[in-house]
Amino acid sequence: MILISDEKELALGEQSYEKTLKESKVIKNTKDSNRVKEIGKKIAKVANKNYDWEFNLIENKAKNAFCLPGGKVVVYTGILEVAKNDDQLATVISHEIAHALARHGAERISTNMVSQGIQILGNIAIASQAPEYTKSFNIAYGLGSQYGVLMPYGRMQENEADEIGIYLMHKAGYDLNEAVKFWENMNEGKKDTIEFLSTHPSSKTRITKIKNIIKNIKIKK
Predict the structure, then answer these.
(1) Does some domain include residue 141?
(2) Catalytic residue at 96?
(3) Listed ranges 35-49, 103-117, 181-195; the one with the highest mean pLDDT
């Protein structure tokens, strides 16, 4: 169920992205920030979506990352402790891009607003000023920690993002086996990776499914 148009989603995404950058310490011209941009651009190229892609690294101890509508990707420095190499960082970025391509955020905000009885406003300028609208949007796109609310993606959404993300990694030339290692790292450090795992639930079953996705891709090569 998607009740928000592409136009509204993109406009709200741009507003939220600009606000996030304004209120955060953006890391520029460092080895890690350049890695984020280079890896992001490689994945964006194979995503074949005509977005104005941007990739930024933000100083934040939280182990998190997200992609807002329109290809606005934010990676927190904290997750670099878990994504131990370029292939594992590509796992994170491709997974977040996959959620955006599949419009999972739009599905989540629609469900969230219906459950709260919030009207979908037609005027984007008015909508951007409505606190309940902005809150629902940010929670739906993985920025809920600022409200003390972490909304997990549904199992089907996570499965779809895993499949799309692994495919993007494959097309971009990254080592797919490192995707498995990344999620194993996340599971091993559950206490320290609680924010990312709260919105992206992981388990041995999930890792097994990822291995099967990789196996199928290799069979088709």
Answers:
(1) no
(2) yes
(3) 35-49
